[in-house]
Amino acid sequence: PCAGGAAYSPALTDFIIQTRKGHMFITGPSVIAQVTGEKVTQDALGGADAHMSVSGVNHFVADSDEQAILIAKKLLSFLPQNNTEDAPIVDPDPYVEPDEAMLDIVPTDGQKGYDVREVIARLVDHQDFLEVQAGYAKNIVVGFARINGRSVGIVANQPAVMAGVLDINASDKASKFIRFCNAFNIPLVTLVDVPGFLPGVAQEHGGIIRHGAKMLYAYSAATVPKITVVLRKAYGGAYLAMCSKDLGADDVFAWPTAEIAVMGAEGAASVVFKREIENAEDPAAKRVELVDEYRNTFSTPFVAASRGLVDDIISPEDTRRKVAMSLEILVNKRELRPAKKHGLGPV
Question: Is the pLDDT score of 7 beyond 90?
């Protein structure tokens, strides 16, 4: 248990494991009651669940000290001894054959959700994935895994929550994780199924431009191998933020059903073909026709590939093999940057 910013600073810690008996806060319930008149319990203010789901201060929640130690050991197993070394190769999974189970996870209908952790499980060694901040900003999933024995950092949109949209909290969560992986030479594998940034007055006034830019900065500054797989849709600025070719991705793969565009076909057709729809004898039927035409002409990964934005269009069942091969090819990647004290990213 700990309390008080002077004694312990989460801001200086890479990962925080908080037990359910522990509490963290700058000012406790009694001080808050005296100063502001607000009544709150220790658990509601600084308990493990509060910091996991609301504040995002902790990264793991343990039921006991013993479990916390096990989490710490597992976390450390993915990391090198220092930032000049590579992470150790541990228990490689030799299975890289086509996995037909991938075909049943992601619905082709972009309006239907699914749990991206099922894709991650089929992609990584032994289906072993250590998720970080699992209860915070659930619309994006980050964590550590291994592919062919090599440690990787996974960043993935979560369509099961808010359709996988990027918002302020998701951007902060992902950008910090990306920067940590880059600091310790851990390659990044990004799984994309994103409809865009979350619209709304609260998001704009909260600084979604600034917070979203953290992801773009983190990816563009990262020098580790960066592999991106577009699973279904990648729209607008969020497509760029999810490690596109423009942000320095080494390899970008796309499934044949992927859509890479400024916006969805429905929205784009309504703007591009507005006059044709309004002047048609049957506007509804005309709109359906033009939406299909736009989707088949512009929203396919083949158009993106023809412009060099996608390196290869792969079958879903070959995803693990392609990513594993790419990691092996990029294992000796070295990217030198100009000498400077540090970059000036958005904060």
Answer: no
Active site residue 308: no
pLDDT at 290: 84
**51 and 149 share a domain?**
no
Q: Which residues pair with 312 in a beta bridge?
A: 253
Average confidence score pLDDT of the chain: 91
**Whether residue 310 sits in one domain with residue 249:** yes
Identify the weakest region by mean pLDDT among 108-122, 129-143, 277-291. Answer: 277-291
Q: How confident is the model at residue 3 (pLDDT cuts 50, 70, 90)?
A: very low
Range of the domain at 253: 84-264+299-329
Catalytic residue at 153? no
* Backbone φ and ψ of 173, nearest 5°: -60, -50
- Assess whether 269 carries a catalytic annotation: no
Cα 216–Cα 169–Cα 52 angle in degrees, nearest 5: 135
Do 102 and 208 belong to one domain?
yes
pLDDT given for residue 5 in this prediction: 43
236 part of a folded domain: yes
- d(C-alpha 126, C-alpha 143), whole Å: 15
Three-state DSSP state, 166? strand
The DSSP code for 190 is E
Per the annotation, the verdict on 5 as an active-site residue is yes
DSSP state of 51: I
Looking at the structure, tell me whether residues 170 and 59 fall in a common domain: no
Same domain, 61 and 127: no
The one catalytic residue among 218, 238, 268, 324? 238
pLDDT digits (tens, 9 = 90+) for 283-311: 888 888 888 888 877 778 998 899 999 99
Number of domains making up the chain: 2
Helix then strand count (H, E) for the chain reads 14, 10
**Claim to verify: residue 211 and residue 321 sit in the same structural domain:** yes
Claim to verify: residue 93 and residue 228 sit in the same structural domain: yes
From the candidates 135, 149, 236, 237, which is the catalytic residue? 237
Distance separating alpha carbons of residues 202 and 152, to the nearest angstrom: 34
Q: Is 37 exposed, middle or buried (0-12, 13-18, 19+ CB in 10 A)?
A: exposed
Could you tell me if 175 and 217 are in contact, meaning their C-beta atoms sit under 8 angstroms apart?
yes
Sign of the alpha-carbon dihedral angle for 141, 346, 343, 10? negative
